Task: inverse folding
């Protein structure tokens, strides 16, 4: 067997398991997080806006975000992560 016939499939497997599969797992977790948003969660958007969810309906693709006395709509896909879970993870590490 030629070295190229062994090396190419091996390289494809390495790329899949080290790059593609972890990215797919991250996307799956992010989608699950965005579909399970609840009222009262403190979140951070991709634009850096910190706020609390005022209204979240499963049928909508948006949530009502409350920042101070202001309320506005944000697409669920624009929500990056939950602020309170990130803070609790940081406390556990310390």
Result:
């Amino acid at each position: 067997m030629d070295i190229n016939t062994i090396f190419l499939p091996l390289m494809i497997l390495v790329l899949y398991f080290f790059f593609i599969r972890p990215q797919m797992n991250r996307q799956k977790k992010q989608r699950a997080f965005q579909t399970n948003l609840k009222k009262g969660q403190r979140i951070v958007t991709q634009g850096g806006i910190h706020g609390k969810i005022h209204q979240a309906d499963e049928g909508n693709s948006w949530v009502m975000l409350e920042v101070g006395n202001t309320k506005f709509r944000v697409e669920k896909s624009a929500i990056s992560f939950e602020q309170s879970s990130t803070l609790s993870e940081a406390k556990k590490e310390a």
